[in-house]
UniProtKB/TrEMBL annotation:
It is an enzyme of class 2 (transferase). The keyword Metal-binding does not apply. It is a multi-pass membrane protein. Keywords: ATP-binding, Cell membrane, Kinase, Membrane, Nucleotide-binding, Phosphoprotein, Transferase, Transmembrane, Transmembrane helix, Two-component regulatory system. The keyword Methyltransferase does not apply. The lineage of its organism: Bacteria, Bacillati, Bacillota, Bacilli, Bacillales. Its EC number is 2.7.13.3. One of its GO terms (molecular function) is kinase activity. Its main location: membrane. Residues 249-462 form the Histidine kinase domain. PROSITE patterns: HAMP (PS50885), HIS_KIN (PS50109). InterPro entries: HAMP_dom, HATPase_C_sf, HATPase_dom, His_kinase_dom, HisK_dim/P_dom, HisK_dim/P_sf, Sig_transdc_His_kin-like_C. Residues 189-241 form the HAMP domain. This is histidine kinase.
Length: 475
């Protein structure tokens, strides 16, 4: 007995399907053979009747004399059959066997013959219980007398041959089913064994052993499943590493401002400092507090995005004004490195968006550009229309650039190209998700040592696009 499980289900279903198919084929085959043999007998008798009718030359009187009926028997006689001559009522007048000339035939073939067609009946012969076929036909003699001639032939030999053929078919079916059972076990094992291996490895992964891998060259869907689980384990290891790096990084980011705040707080509490030193200490405390608030807000924003809890306050936004505000916010930081912020946007574009969230995106992009650009360089912000249906906002710098290895991962959460520059590694991940919430996309092109270009593509309808000249006309 097969144990319950997938192997049992596969074997039983496979056997059931093949058994039903084989049963249908054998039944249809045997019925076709039986029909062929029975129809062959019926056709042979009807052909003989037709030929006898075409060549009859006898005149038979209407008194049903034995001599005349005997001539009719002799004319229509057929080998290996019993011939009976009946009245239209089914009363037997004469039989080629000479038995029971006075009995009445009540089988269905006689009424069919009286109706004008060939009558056919298959059943058991009364008295002998022999399987027979009866074929009847109404004949006219010289246009005056009408009789029913009835042929009866034994079907025992045909039935015996059909029985032997049925037994042979059953034997072949049993042999086929035996082979199918063997093949079904092989098929089940080819599926179940890899799955058992995958299940065992998955159980190890569930216990935290992510270095375990599914080994084996599996094909088709099972191979895809094994590859997916191995990939999942790799991603979990990578995510855990990124998480550890993030915890280490954020711990450092938090410790630095907290150390400054604590140090200056204790210093100021001790007293004895002039107003200038006190003012300097309070300024550092305020600056580091703002830095802490920024870090916490960045983490909270990422948490909201991950849980789909961030709500957008949509409204009509002037992209040119938004970019100008972004430049003003970053100007002081850029000025320290003598970096020039340039805006290339001659037209006025209006889109439906959350102004604060989009500004957060552009601030992050420009801040990154300033952070990784050399002194006395330029950062260009531009906006232009793409085929009338999309708006592209581009932030282009000539900084250190990003290598091809890091370019594909730079938007991953917690990932940092250079951990020494600080930050949580969440800025680009948050920016990309905010852009996607607006129905847009964020694209990056970069070449190491030559700079980076980040393009934010946002959807825009004709009603939302208004040029400066069109705006003047409306006013």
């Amino acid at each position: 007995m097969i144990k319950k499980g997938m192997r049992r289900q596969i074997v039983l279903h496979y056997i059931f399907v093949v058994f039903v198919a084989l049963l249908l084929v054998e039944v249809i085959f045997l019925l076709a053979i039986r029909t062929y043999y029975y129809d062959s007998v019926y056709s042979k008798i009807t052909l003989h009747i037709g030929m006898a009718e075409d060549f009859q030359k006898y005149e038979i009187s209407g008194d049903h004399s034995p001599n005349q009926l005997q001539k009719l028997l002799d004319f229509f006689q057929m080998d290996y059959t019993e011939l009976q001559v009946l009245t239209l009522d089914g009363n037997m007048l004469i039989s080629s066997t000479g038995f029971q000339p006075d009995r009445t035939i009540t089988t269905s073939d006689v009424p069919e013959a009286v109706g004008g067609s060939f009558g056919r009946w298959v059943g058991r012969q009364p008295g002998t219980n022999e399987s027979v076929m009866a074929v009847s036909k109404m004949v006219h003699i010289n246009g005056r007398e009408t009789y029913v001639i009835r042929y009866i032939t034994s079907m025992e030999r045909i039935d015996s041959d059909l029985l032997n053929l049925t037994l042979v078919s059953i034997g072949i079916g049993v042999a086929v089913m035996s082979i199918v059972v063997l093949f079904s076990f092989g098929l089940a094992n080819s599926i179940v064994k890899p799955l058992k291996n995958i299940t065992a490895v998955s159980a190890q992964m569930a216990k935290g052993k992510f270095t375990t891998r599914i080994k084996g060259d599996y094909k088709h869907e099972i191979g895809d499943l094994a590859s997916t689980l191995n990939y999942m384990a790799d991603e979990i290891i990578r995510s855990n590493q990124i998480k550890d790096d993030f915890i280490s990084s954020i711990s450092h980011e938090l410790r630095t401002p907290l150390t400054s705040i604590k140090g200056w707080s204790e210093t100021l509490i001790s007293g004895g400092y002039d107003p200038e030193e006190t003012k300097l200490g309070m300024g550092i405390i305020s600056k580091e507090s703002d830095r802490l608030i920024g870090l916490v807000e960045e983490i909270l924003d990422f948490s909201k995005l991950q849980q789909n809890e961030m709500k957008l306050s949509m409204g009509r936004v002037d992209i040119k004004v938004l970019l100008q505000e972004t430049i003003l916010n970053i100007w002081a930081k850029a000025e320290k490195k003598r970096i020039h912020l340039l805006l290339e946007c001659d037209e006025t574009f209006y889109i439906k968006a959350d102004a604060n969230r989009l500004k957060q995106v552009f601030l992050n992009l420009v801040d990154n550009a300033v952070k990784f650009s050399p002194e006395d360089s330029s950062i260009v912000l531009s906006a232009h229309c793409l085929s009338g249906s999309e708006l592209a906002v581009v932030v282009r710098d000539s900084g250190i650039g990003i290598s091809e290895v890091h370019l594909g991962r730079v938007r991953d959460r917690f990932f940092q190209v250079d951990a020494l520059n600080g930050g949580t590694g969440l800025g680009l991940a948050i920016s990309q998700q905010i852009v996607e919430l607006h129905g847009g996309k964020l694209e990056m092109d970069s070449e190491l040592g030559k700079g980076t270009q980040v393009t934010v593509i946002l959807p825009m309808t004709e009603e939302q696009t208004v040029t400066a000249s069109q705006e003047d006309k409306l006013l």
